[in-house]
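Researcher: First entry.
Model:
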Amino acid sequence: MSTWEKAKAQMEETGGKALRKSAHAMGNEKLAAKGGALEARGKARHLKERAKGKLS
């Protein structure tokens, strides 16, 4: 598993979670949804990298 790809996935997941929580606290549901989507994409990328690591 590429260290850079793993770090990128973790940053995307963490950034999405922070965006979602802060937007939700401010009452901006549209931005909270974007943060949730970013978090989900980071989780999917993280799972993909874990699967690639197990195959190698």
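Researcher: Second entry.
Model:
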Amino acid sequence: MLQRIKKIDGIIVIVLLLLMAVSMLSIYSVTHGRAEDGFHIQMAQYYAAGFVVFFGLSLFDYRILVRYAIYIYILGIGILVLVSLFGTVKFGARAWLEIGGFSFQPAELFKLILILALSALLVRLGRSQLRFWRDVVPLSLVGLLPFGIVILQNDMGNALSYMVILVGLLWIGRIKASHALIGLLIAGGAFGAFVYSYINYHEQTADFLSATIGREHFIKRFDPWLVPERASSDDSYQTRNARIAIGSGGLSGEGYLEGSSVQSNKIPVLYSDAIFAQIAEEFGFIGAAVLLMLFFILIHRMILFALECKDKAGPFLIIGIIAMLLYQILENIGAYIGLMPLTGITLPFISFGGTSVLINMASMGIAMSVHIYGRDVEEELPVPAMYF
């Protein structure tokens, strides 16, 4: 056990501690003296639990999780169905389960479950190159099932993360270039057609989303992004003021606790998914660049873990985790600078939220487990009792 502990990567631990410090400072800045005063203390508690999860999973052989990934996946699907039936609605999405006063988002947890399931299936397929009907289609269905469930819960942010994870793992799993090109053309064409229709036939598209399929919540997300001139002041209030805050930060920022927009409470739930606006306004471009550099170091270390891993499943797990984190970072920041739609995705390790912190710390624990155990002699996974 002591030898395993010594293998824990110190750089990862230091970066996680720095991200925790940034998170607590940022949350304190936007909550002190308000109804949410004390959230930074709660965040410290979430991080304390997160580090327990991180070190626990670091010392736990990830190959055991891979062996039972199929059963974990089935259990996860069952929990997502429970959310659809009994979940609590917050911010327009039915995405929370409340048990004894404790609230959590199963869709967040399922990102890791999906990474485990797809990685296990890719290892068991053992292809030098994926075949379309026998490999790509079944793997895609494994990702599309939770996507469909979660999109029906109005949780577009987490649903899209499943697709990003699926694409990342299909790519590293050696999908044929022709299949990848066809998929990109279909996806790009569908996306382009949607954007064109939404902009040029806004009324008809909005009617379809709201009246036909009951997704009026999506209109509030798409309008400020694609047709800001048609968006209501309420729908565009958060993103508009966030962009003002980000722009006013300049090079070095307005100073900690001195941000003119964030301290005047012009941005709703700033401590959650809009926390980047506080960092950009009070610490400026330099502060935002430092934060992105911390993310880069984290991802760079994980890539090194994948390259040194001798086990087949390890690189798949790490690529899935990297895809998950990159999507969250780019989507969160992109939404507040006008490049992406607002989906409610949190900024990893920074935004307030127990579920988000625990899942992100768990993902780093799994990556660390790959680093510790993946350099051992490769072991073949046993044939599963259930195959799908």
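Model: Note on the second entry: The two ends are 35 Å apart (CA to CA).
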